[in-house]
């Protein structure tokens, strides 16, 4: 729903979704005119293909599915996309380092990463979330999207959207 607000112009922009799962977020971007690659593990490719096929009549851009395992080579996904979309990718401690490596490898100076997640308070979730944002801030600048800019009908106090950009390189001191 946030993408529909037009806060991020997606028409004819190259978009990569990480950890796409069902592909709903990436497919939505494609309905707004983006050229999208939804990525996830091999075992989710069939589901992604089915969902792309079932929604192709809504797509005004383009959408395809590809395998991408976090932490591995991203050469085939270069040059850096205009946008990287992530929805609910912060929940598994062992995946934090590979996810951060993939983000660093995929982002260019003008790439905008939109990360949406549900704040979970059970078990190790708060600790994993804290660690993720701590590690992320080594190389990236974060801007939390205020709740009043979320979709009016679907906003929730425990759903967060963060805009993430690479830190600008600073010249010699």
UniProtKB/TrEMBL annotation:
It comes from the Eukaryota. This is MT21D methyltransferase. SUPFAM superfamilies: S-adenosyl-L-methionine-dependent methyltransferases (SSF53335). It comes from Certhia familiaris. One of its GO terms (biological process) is methylation. Keywords: Methyltransferase, S-adenosyl-L-methionine, Transferase. Gene3D superfamilies: Vaccinia Virus protein VP39. GO terms for cellular component: cytosol; protein-containing complex.
